[in-house]
UniProtKB/TrEMBL annotation:
Residues 1-19 form the signal peptide. Residues 83-149 form the BON domain. Residues 20-60 are annotated as: Disordered. This is BON domain-containing protein. It comes from Acaryochloris thomasi RCC1774. The keyword Nuclease does not apply. InterPro entries: BON_dom (IPR007055). It holds the Pfam family BON. It comes from the Bacteria. Keywords: Signal.
Length: 152
C-alpha cells in the first residue's frame, strides 16, 4: 500500500512540475524565435480579461508566493542560487498581472531575463524592465518586444 501511495505521489509531482513549464504569458504569445504578430482586438480583450480576472490574479499571486516560500526554505531567501525556472515563472506572473494585454515569452538564464513578444503601448514596453527587476534574482533584462496596436 505504501508503494502505491509513493507511486501516486511521484506521478502527481511529475505532472505538476511539467505543467508549470510554459514560457508564455498567454496562448497567443509567440514562441521564442517567432516574429511577434499583431494581436487582433478580440485577442487582446480575451488576454486582458483573463489576466485581470480575480481567479487568475489569485493564481498568479499564489505562484509567486509559493516560489518565494520555497526560496526562503531551501535557499535561505538569497537572490543568488535561484533556479532559472523560478525566476522566469515569477517574471512571467508579474508581467501577466501588470500588463494584461501583452503577449510575452520569458526566458531566464543566470540572472539574465529575456522578454520577447508584443505589448500595446509604449508605457507597457517601458514597464517591462522595471517590473522584471522587482523579482529577486534578476540581474539584467533584455527586452525584445514590439509595440503593436490591435488589428481590427
Amino acid at each position: 500500500m505504501k508503494k502505491l501511495a509513493i507511486a501516486l505521489l511521484g506521478t502527481a509531482l511529475a505532472l505538476g512540475a511539467t505543467a508549470c513549464q510554459e514560457k508564455r504569458t498567454s496562448a497567443d504569445a509567440p514562441d521564442g524565435d517567432e516574429n511577434p504578430p499583431a494581436l487582433s482586438a478580440e485577442q487582446q480583450e480575451e488576454a486582458s480579461e483573463d489576466a485581470t480576472s480575480a481567479i487568475r490574479r489569485e493564481q498568479l499571486d499564489a505562484d509567486i508566493r509559493a516560489r518565494e516560500q520555497r526560496n526562503n526554505a531551501f535557499n535561505d531567501g538569497d537572490a543568488e542560487g535561484r533556479t532559472d525556472i523560478d525566476i522566469a515563472s515569477e517574471v512571467r506572473s508579474k508581467l501577466e498581472a501588470n500588463l494584461p494585454e501583452s503577449a510575452l515569452t520569458i526566458e531566464a538564464e543566470d540572472g539574465l531575463v529575456t522578454v520577447q513578444g508584443t505589448v500595446v503601448t509604449q508605457d507597457q514596453y517601458d514597464e517591462i524592465e522595471v517590473l522584471a527587476k522587482e523579482i529577486k534574482g534578476v540581474q539584467s533584462v533584455i527586452v525584445d518586444a514590439a509595440v503593436t496596436s490591435a488589428q481590427s
